[in-house]
Structures are given as structure tokens and as C-alpha cells.
């Protein structure tokens, strides 16, 4: 089975969905942040290993404690995954921190900061135009 085969893509999608469900609903570890999401999962073609990319919205300490909590709950997560997905082998999961969502949020904030003066100037020009037009209509 090739890495990008239809079967592998479907397995990756299903594992991502199930890991999200397990982490958000079944794990009760206080170290795991409620703002944790599974970005993607890459299951190896032989179904023996899986890289789960995790994103945590919060401080670096919260991210590290969440990763630590997930690693300690590894056995529970693997067992729950085996019960929910019927695969020949249940993959051994390795959790990897993914900063892409946080990076995107930060970039959006920076873009807004850059565009704020432009938007303010446009609003002021529009208000001025409306005032001028309403003055012209009265005359």
C-alpha cells in the first residue's frame, strides 16, 4: 500500500477523527488542555506507527503539559482506538506538537494591526463623504 493511496488517506482521516473524539471526550487528565485539537494523523502504510499532530491553544507550559499528559495516556488512547477502529494492527501513536494553528492566528493578528490604520482612514473618508453628500442634498 502506497503512502498516498486512497485506503491510507481514508485510514488517516478516520484515525484523526477518532483521536479527536478520544482526547476531547474520554481522557480525564487535568494536564490536557481543553483547547487541544488533532490537526492530522499520518498512519504508516504497514499500520504499525502513527504520527499524530496536536495543536494546543495556550501558553508553552500548557502545550508541554498537554503533550506530557497525552504521552502518559498513550496506552489508554491506543486501547480506545483499537476498540473504535477495526484495523489489522493498531498503530503505535507518537504525538507531535503542531504550531500551525497558533502561527496562523498570530499572522492574522499582525495583518490586522497593519491594516487597522488603512481601514480607519477609509472609514473617516466614507463618513466625510456622507456628510458632504447630505449637505449637498439640503441645498
Q: What's the CATH architecture of the largest domain? A: 2-Layer Sandwich
Gross morphology: elongated
Oligomer: single chain
Residues in helix, %: 55-70%
Number of helices: 4
Return the CATH class of the largest domain. Alpha Beta
CATH topology of the largest domain: GMP Synthetase, Chain A, domain 3
Question: How many domains make up the coordinates?
Answer: 2
Largest sheet geometry: 3 strands, mixed
Strand content: 15-25%
- Spatial strand sequence of the major β-sheet: 1-2-3
| Secondary structure: number of strands | 3
Element-level helix/strand string: HEEHHEH
> Structural class given helices, strands, pairing?
alpha+beta
Explain this structure to me?
It is a single chain. The chain has 139 residues and is of the alpha+beta class. Helix content is 60%, strand content 16%. It has 2 domains: 1-98, GMP Synthetase, Chain A, domain 3 (2-Layer Sandwich), CATH 3.30.300.20; 100-139. It has 4 helices and 3 strands. A hairpin with a 5-residue loop joins strand 1 (36-43) and strand 2 (49-56). Helix 1 (6-26) crosses helix 3. The longest helix has 39 residues, at 100-138. The termini are far apart. The mean pLDDT is 89.
Task: Label this structure with key terms.
single chain; 139 residues; alpha+beta; GMP Synthetase, Chain A, domain 3; 3-stranded mixed β-sheet; 4 helices; 60% helix
Annotate the secondary structure layout.
Layout: H1 6-26, E1 36-43, E2 49-56, H2 60-72, H3 74-84, E3 92-97, H4 100-138
Parallel strand pairs: 2-3
Antiparallel strand pairs: 1-2
Helix pairs in contact: 1-3
Amino acid at each position: 500500500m502506497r503512502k498516498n493511496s486512497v485506503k491510507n488517506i481514508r485510514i488517516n482521516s478516520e484515525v484523526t477523527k477518532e483521536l479527536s473524539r478520544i482526547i476531547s471526550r474520554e481522557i480525564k487528565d487535568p494536564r490536557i488542555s481543553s483547547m487541544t485539537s488533532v490537526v492530522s494523523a499520518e498512519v504508516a502504510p504497514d499500520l504499525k506507527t502513527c504520527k499524530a499532530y496536536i495543536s494546543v491553544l495556550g501558553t508553552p507550559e500548557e502545550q508541554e503539559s498537554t503533550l506530557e499528559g497525552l504521552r502518559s495516556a498513550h496506552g489508554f488512547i491506543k486501547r480506545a482506538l483499537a476498540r473504535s477502529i477495526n484495523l489489522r494492527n493498531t498503530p503505535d501513536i507518537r504525538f507531535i506538537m503542531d504550531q500551525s494553528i497558533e502561527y496562523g492566528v498570530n499572522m492574522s493578528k499582525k495583518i490586522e494591526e497593519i491594516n487597522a490604520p488603512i481601514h480607519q482612514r477609509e472609514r473617516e473618508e466614507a463618513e466625510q463623504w456622507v456628510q458632504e453628500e447630505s449637505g449637498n442634498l439640503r441645498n
